[in-house]
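Look at one such:
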Amino acid sequence: MSRTMQGWILLTGVAVILFTILINAHSTGPQVAKPALPEVPEWPWEAPDTAAIPQTETGKLIRYGRDLIVKTAHYLGPQGIVQPISNGMNCQNCHLDAGTRPWGNNYGAVATTYPRYRDRSGMVESVEKRINDCLQRSLNGKALDSNSRELKAMVAYIKWVGSEVQANKKPLGVGISNLPYLDRPADSTQGAFVYAQYCQRCHGNDGQGLSDSLQHAGYLYPPLWGAHSYNTGAGLYRLSRLAGYVRDNMPYDEAFHCRPVLTDEEAWDVAAYINARARPAKPFPKDWPDISTKPVDHPFGPFSDTFSTQQHKFGPFKPIETQKKKAKT
């Protein structure tokens, strides 16, 4: 057979195959459903690389804001070089890795969700108000002046951290996990054993943490109670907030949301142990102007339900939640 004939046969075969494909593609007969592609799981939020901070005046402000978050005590602590207005803790003692760690109480969603209304204050809050709340509560200190370079720098950094998040989007890994409620009160006695096993090596037997000897200010591991810890108005003084935070992040060098070290029960119990210790009492009488919006674990009255202060502090919280839901219907 000649090469010319072989070529014609090959072309004819290709034409038949293409014709068959076209006929099948346009067939009006029954179509076989194709299996759906599996959904791609959402990836936890990641902060931008600090190398991307621009080399501009705005970039300088962002970098200063980050430095204030990491080394708050150096600038604003008891011996602060700017103002001595806080208890010596650093913002990143609670907002881990300068507010960038997934599930580590990060700043990822702040830029896109503020200003926002908050039940605690009963008003629309700005980022500036939120920062000053942390200074007054978690750092048991005083608010920064709204025109201060420090407040402007912290706002600039926090907004930069969330600059790649879509508007009104709350990506995976921001906020603090909500653990299922226990069917019993959280047990501070059991929590003492959890603390001794998992927490004591960093925070000390007396809960006073480990000072940062290199910076000569602040803490590598913060005090969990006592005069230099967060006060009774801080968010972490609510048991659910502390339990969720601890479960996802502690011990600091081992735990992560997807591979926690502590069980949910252990997290609740150690949170009860920590928050049962003495700490600065600082009242915020204007909090929760509508008392019906108070969270079930807010431990200060008056309450819109019939449960005791003790139960609001340590639980069980399910009966409180049930009564509050019934009151709304």
